[in-house]
Amino acid sequence: MGDHGGMPEHTADGRYVVIDGRRWRATDPDIPEDVAARLRSLLMSARRDVGTAKRAGDAEAEQQARDRVHAAKVALGERGTPWWEQTAAQRRRRWEGVLPDA
């Protein structure tokens, strides 16, 4: 089981993390840490905005925030084409598409 206080357990191939017995795709390990931190910050902001929009009953704002969550997760390599099936250049373009100054 995962450890919410520290680094989660990874599968032997490093492609997934295991949290509470459930497997989730791991963040692309080739993303520079400063870029990954910015992407995680965008992800958390978008997740907060989903909650705010839901509480306000604003379906349009909720969808926009969910789209931002999805974009951040794709940039992190946690959704979309698996990072281990992409070239280094494709991986870089994936996160630079969200952070043009990365």
Low-confidence stretches: none
Q: What percentage of the residues does DSSP assign to strands (E)?
A: 5-15%
CA(first)-CA(last) distance = 33 Å
Helix content: 40-55%
Q: Which structural class do you get from the secondary structure elements?
A: mainly alpha
* pLDDT averaged over residues: 91
User: Count of helical segments?
Assistant: 3
Total count of strands: 3
For the biggest sheet, the summary is: 3 strands, antiparallel
The shape, in one word, is: globular
Rg to the nearest angstrom?
A: 15 Å
List the secondary-structure elements in sequence, H or E. EEEHHH
What order do the strands of the largest sheet run in, or round the barrel if closed? 1-2-3
Protein name: Biopolymer transporter Tol
Organism: Amycolatopsis antarctica
Describe this structure in words.
It is a single chain. The protein is mainly α and 102 residues long. The chain has a domain of 66 residues. The protein contains three helices and three strands; from the N terminus they run βββααα. It has a three-stranded antiparallel beta sheet, with no helix packed on it. Helix 1 runs antiparallel to helix 2. The radius of gyration is 15 Å and the shape is globular. The relative contact order is 0.15.
